[in-house]
Amino acid sequence: MNSKILAGAARDAASHEEIGGKAANLSALERVGLFVPAWVVVPSSVFAAFRVGDPGESFSFQPEFLAELVSVLPGTESFAVRSSAAVEDGRADSYAGIFDSVLGVPRAELPDALLRVWRSAFSPRVNEYRNARSLGGTEIRIAVIVQALYPAEVAGVAFGLNPLTGNADERVVEAVAGLGEGLVSGELDSDQFVVRGKTVERRLRQLAGSPTLTDDEVLEITRKLDTLARHFGAPQDVEFARAGGKIAYLQSRPITTLIRDDEETVWENNNLIESYPGMTTPLTFDFVKKTYEIGYRQISAMIGLPRSTIEGNSVRYAGMIGLLRNRMYYNLTNILTITRTVPGSTVLERSFTAAIGITDEAPKPKKGLSDLTAFLRFLFRTALRLFILWLRLPSMRRKFVADLDRILADARKVPLATRSFDEVVGYFHELERTVFGIWRAPPLNGLFTMVFFRGLETLTRRLHLDVERPNLRNELLVGAENIVSTEPILRIATLTESIRRDPPARDLFARETADGVWAKLGEPAHAKLRAEIDDYLER
Q: Quick check: pTM over 0.85?
């Protein structure tokens, strides 16, 4: 009989979809040499196979599975049963505290604990979390970790950078006596240790009379944090426990909460409103939001930002635009915070703010490097990469257009009219992933457009050409060809002119309703105009 519970090499070789984010990260902790209490995982395929009817009510277990479940980890009498969904502990959405965990489970009660964790995937709490982040539409695949409960004397969480300030030079460790559930839930005050280099600053809140951790233990934990940051490519949020002088590591996930509660958020829709005027539907917003997130991530990687910096700002990349009263706005705070992570960012920041037409509203950066130092860093680290990318951009554009034409040509062959609603939604998400997979040239092209627009503005100002004509920079670009975003407007203008010069067509549009116009455009007398309209719609 093939085992439905994975351990050891079989567990570590399983896919992320099968064992989920939390279990995949536990395997990684072991691979880098950290001590993890013994554990197994019940994969998501078991959940799918055993699910019967309403997930909140009915599950059916085979006797063979029950026998295997209650015999796991021989010698262990108390277990921790935790969720491990495929969407859990991710870089943008951690689902921290959203699914149930059950601690101190006796062996005989493992089946009940398993059911409780599985059912938590369908709770109102999960639905609210997903709806708030526009994550709905896909079924949650959930695996379950069964682990020997570590008899913690002290438990805590540790952060690979300061989660309140975003300071990457600080590590923060928080600890309480006992299993640590009160710390994770926020019910207990914790001892806090802020580490800068080898200096440990204590902020003691526990009533035990002495620190929950020694300085040596705190420094040991922070060294592990640095190891994990190098392994995962991003600062980590780690749960740990100490018993008998030995520290065990129970969980690791990317830090996803780097925005301070007291941070001022500046919203602005200059420029963006030109592309998305009026009210915006949630579906359109969801797509545009992903476009900005993926585009800026790709630009950041292409110009050389470290992966740890990109992942450390996951929340900001995911929140570059917002939907306020059904209208889209730039989140300037997030956009400019990301921009300022680039060496010599002043050039890029001024390019962006000039492109969208703002000055005073932009959140001001903290004092830092002098303008000369920033310029030199930009010149030698960022500008060289940008120059190389600029040389490659024409070939990147051609490849993107060819790939996109091929993808859309294949999409037009799909008989969507014969598909069910769920199949259409699934195909949409599949098409979305395919397009985003080639989405490199558009954001890079947009970046250079902003940089050159800023350069043109600077040139006209320094030559005093804008004194009498403050919009000269815009006038110089009017009529520029091969700008895809202006093509719909230009083609509509061409169609309008064709109708104006064709008396029968002009009369048709003047006297008929929209439905009447469309019906009569099928007549031979209007075949040329109908072909032009069809070509416009096809594009």
A: no
